[in-house]
Amino acid sequence: MNFAVGSLVKARGREWVVLPESSEEVLLLRPLGGTEDEVTGISRHLETVVEASFMPPDPDLLGDYRSCRLLRDAVRLGFRSSAGPFRSFAHLAVEPRPYQLVPLLMALKQEPVRLLIADDVGIGKTVESCLIARELLDRGEISRLAILCPPHLAEQWQAELSEKFHIDAKLVLSSTVSQLERDCRLGQSLFDRYPFVIVSIDFIKSDRRRDEFLRTCPEFVIVDEAHTCTEAGEGRGGRHQRHQLVASIAADAQRHLILVTATPHSGNESAFRSLLILLDKDFARLPEDLSGREHEQARRQLAAYFVQRRRADIRAYLHADTPFPTRLEQEQSYKLSPEYRRLVEKVMRFARETVIDPNDSSKHRQRVRWWSVLALLRSIASSPAAAAATLRSRAATADTETEEEANSIGRHTLLDLMDNEATEGVDLVPGSDFEQEQSSETRVRRRLQEMAREAEALKGAKDEKLQQAIKMVGSMLKDGFQPIVFCRFIPTAEYVAQALRERLPKGVQVEAVTGLLPPVERENRIAELSEYSQRVLVCTDCLSEGVNLQEHFNAVIHYDLSWNPTRHEQREGRVDRFGQPSKQVRVVTYYDGSADSIDRIVLDVLIRKHRQIRTSLGISVPVPANSEQVIESIFEDKILRGRENLIEGDQMALPGMEDPREKELSRQWTDASEREKRSRSMFSQETIKVDEVARELDAMRSAIGSTVDVATFTRDTLLAYGASVSQNSKGVTLLDLKETPRALRDTLSVHKSSLRARFELPVSDDEIYLNRTHPFIEGLATYVMDAALDPEGDSVARRCGVIRTSRVARRTTLLLTRMRFHIVTRQAGEERILLAEDCQILAFSGAPQNATWIDDQTCINELVEAKPEANTLPEQARNLLRQVIENIPLLQPHLQEAAAIRGNELREAHRRVRSASQMRGVRYEVKSEFAPDVLGIYVYLPKL
């Protein structure tokens, strides 16, 4: 005989549920009450499979007042094909915050899905985008997924997909592609071979690889750090190639596309518009200024594709507190030693002589020299190690052929522009030797070598910046902080790390992570470092973007100031984000306090202005796009030529007055912040109302249980089995399982009897996060369920019981039922069947022969929580239960009706949240083809 999807069968001595992927020859089965890991394929030609019937409870196995609640929660937490409005939530290893449902609801109202998720740093854009992908996968609307991201973020994406969404994705990087292709058939693309891939966008953007990817591109694509893919105009640079790739992906009108970035504008309105056009080409016709009532319709249209929120917007969304740490910021200055100061002055004289060379009228060579001396000034401000390396290295601009090329390379390597080719390679020393002659005896080269030797001699005791930083790091460690020290150049990071290793107390582990390490090794070093209770990470900006470090670190020291404050914000965002277990994070801006130092210029012109705007607006606003030209000219005038010298054609300030260029930059920045404020107001999510999110959130929690349900079930069950469960002052749940049954510990797969756990993020290194799909919770729910269903089992959750309570005025019976449905999706003649399971408690008063059914769910829930107030004789209890069991046939019509009503609710929920699919002729039908399983019978008698 053929078995319908969702039917119960018996094989290998146990009951199973038939899954949708079954065929006539092979049945794909999940054990009754089992998990996805236990899914098994059974060949009907080789093994006997028969129809199974669900036996009623045994009245001789009486439970107590906890039985109904524990069994209900065990059943709900065991669901992997839930009947809630979202198909994916039973597969998640994290409960999304309420605000993270907004992008999901926005996406489900679109066909295809096209979104720009631009929430602030640390809010959880990765979770929001992956949640959409998981939902469409579980609805059967997509079968393949690709994530395009910078290579250094690939492993983090892989871990997020695996740990939180149970998606096993392959890394497609230059270092992995050969191995992946070896497993492909002749002529088969690896993108056909592997349904879920995380692809380095810089690897795949080349013409040869791009064409293959576009030919076999999955139907769902997420583009991370999308601001690096904005249109760059003419040319063949990396940004242009990335934009061409993403534009080609977006050209397929049926493809789902999500763009993810915390900086959608990057200070450039045209770049922002180029992202919007990827979502909908009609956005090319949007007016430049969207304010005013006349553009309300255009704003609403754009708001359906664009979600952008500050922390303040979501901190208490739907009354769910989302804890972010308090940021403790301070500035700390240092003074150069006399020896270091003399070298800086010598470098300054060399810089002025070099830039102002009357013997060379070539504008190209002038720019080469300018970038060379600026590299030297920046590196000597960083460390003696970086200065020596720069003095001995060839300038990055030395081999250019045009002024434009020299400026492009110089800005890329020195000005920390956010439109760089990601963060790879920017920590290399830029070099200062610009001489065209190869002879080592040139005058310039001899001076460079001499200064390099002087820089080497300043390492260690004569480097006051380093010495004061060592004390600062030591103080942080004593205060319980685990700091990250951000440096600009690789030699500086290695130099600082070595000094910290030598000077900090034993037991403090110090590691350096720079761009010299491949991304995999960076992850490994951080993982190894996290094993130490006291740790310091010294790194370059190769870790400033996208990498989440909040679980292991809670402080940032800007050892070298970035020349772009957005980079500062990104550095701080590695620790200052949701999931940070510390209530406070510390940020130190460390700078040279000399009045004429480069650090003071950066601090005065950029860093403090950025901080002021962030404080007043609540978000970071990028520096205006043309700021690098202003910064260049300010550096040139104030550092190289002196404030007292006027440049022909320039209007400079007199001593003590604000430079007009600084004033203009400040004005532009203020205007940009005001535009950003208006934008935030204009694009608030009017398309998704708070009550709509609340409704779907309640429906989801009712179907599969909430974080509170997981915590309550875990504590009550373990206590009932003899465990010790307590909570310390920090809210950590302490579990001691030594006295629990050995069979339970084996099921939970615990390697130690004592655990520190939390049921909500964030968690510390020595704690585990217990969510509904964690193996511990899955094992606990399975153990309770199997023991309750096994006549020989010894479960704390029994399938029947009788309780006396003052909460009822007459005999009332609760039936714990499990319903199974077919969700049938029809489109263009194709039919797709999904299995859904639901747990419902039905109740009636009186005898079963003349039952009066109760519709008040609040009343039913209160009974589930009722405790006995008087004793009931065992024989009386058994007789009452037998009476219900014998009359179950009389109750079946109402059970079928309840299942039909629930099926209609389920159909409406699917139509409601996926309303856009109806535009493409998609139709949903929910069939209740099986009689509800009566898992438990619980009789409540009035207190005598």
UniProtKB/TrEMBL annotation:
Stretches the record annotates as Disordered: 654-681
Example GO molecular function: helicase activity
Composition bias type Basic and acidic residues, residue spans: 658-679
Keyword Zinc recorded: no
Keywords: ATP-binding, Helicase, Hydrolase, Nucleotide-binding
Gene3D superfamilies in alphabetical order: P-loop containing nucleotide triphosphate hydrolases (3.40.50.300), Tandem AAA-ATPase domain (3.40.50.10810)
Domain Helicase C-terminal: 465-621
Sequence ranges assigned to domain Helicase ATP-binding in this UniProt record: 106-282
SUPFAM superfamilies with a match to the protein in the record: P-loop containing nucleoside triphosphate hydrolases (SSF52540)
PANTHER family cross-referenced by the UniProt entry: DNA ANNEALING HELICASE AND ENDONUCLEASE ZRANB3 FAMILY MEMBER, SWI_SNF-RELATED MATRIX-ASSOCIATED ACTIN-DEPENDENT REGULATOR OF CHROMATIN SUBFAMILY A-LIKE PROTEIN 1
Protein name: ATP-dependent helicase HepA
Source organism of the structure: Dictyobacter formicarum
